[in-house]
Write a structure and sequence with these properties.
Elements lengths: L27 H13 L23 E8 L2 E7 L1 H7 L14 H16 L2 E9 L8 E10 L8 E9 L10 E9 L54 H8 L14
Antiparallel strand pairs: 1-2, 1-5, 3-4, 3-6, 4-5
Length: 259
């Protein structure tokens, strides 16, 4: 799909309207995701990660993902639907988004991702792939839309990846056939952008969803389990805890083998 469009513009660098009537090749999943994201936008602003309610995009959940920006051009999958797992043949949550792409395309992806977070822009990708043991070329489409984090900075993104047809032989790593970018008009007084060097991410399994009052799992993630004292055993007091965590002086640690 590389080349020039009818107006002589390079397709890889084309900036197009987000108006779904002007983009007839988008799948219904991408149109629904775009409609939902646009409906959450405040005047002159961007939606926040905490505004995302998975119940409102139930039909798109298998294809949806949430990204966290770790460094310029680098983002990891905090949440990922089952369709992404099927394409890769493994759990992808926690992996960098670049893991879904072929090595020659990763630098290009980094540049596009950096502009998506810092401009900000909406990003759409036309993708193709071929499994290692399969000669058939398969195609997919991806959309990534910027979000604010809890501090009001553009370090999150809502996206979806939709494969066209069957993907019988995972894993598939994609080539970027075309990239379409759309500048988003915002009031920069209402939006903060992350510094070039980001602090080390804090792993959280329970980002709150609006309107619930209590923290709930991130999208498709489960709440992390906490330790529970076994039934019938007394809880440790502060002194007991300190004693249990302190090794007696003069005694070397040892490993006890139970046969």
């Amino acid at each position: 799909m590389n080349g020039m469009d009818r107006n002589g513009a390079n397709r890889d660098e084309a900036i197009v309207s987000l108006d779904k009537r002007k983009a007839t090749l988008r799948s219904k999943v991408m149109v629904d995701m775009l409609d939902y994201w646009q409906g959450l936008r405040p005047d002159g602003g961007l939606p926040a990660r905490g505004d995302i309610d998975p119940r409102r995009i139930e039909g798109a959940l298998p294809y949806a993902f949430v990204l966290e920006r770790l460094a310029p051009g680098v983002a990891r999958l905090r949440v990922a639907g089952g369709h992404l797992t099927d394409l890769m043949g493994m759990e992808v949550r926690g992996m960098p988004l670049s893991a879904l792409f072929q090595h020659p395309d990763r630098n290009k992806l980094m540049g596009l991702m950096d502009k998506m977070f810092t401009t900000p822009r909406a990003l759409e990708l036309e993708l193709s792939a071929r499994a290692d043991r399969d000669r058939q070329v398969v195609h997919a489409e991806m959309m990534i839309l910027p979000l604010l984090d809890d501090q009001g900075m553009v370090t999150r993104a809502l996206g979806c990846l939709v494969g066209r047809g069957a993907f019988p032989n995972p894993p598939y790593r994609f080539h970027i056939d075309a990239a379409r970018e759309t500048d988003i008009e915002i009031n920069r007084d209402n939006v903060s952008f992350a510094p070039a060097r980001l602090p080390s991410p804090k792993v959280s399994r329970t980002e709150g969803l609006s309107g619930t009052g209590a923290a709930k799992p991130v999208g498709f993630a489960d709440v992390a389990k906490t330790y529970a004292q076994p039934v019938g055993q007394p809880a440790l007091t502060g002194a007991d805890t300190e004693t249990a965590q302190t090794r007696p002086s003069g005694k070397a640690p040892f490993l006890r083998i139970v046969k």
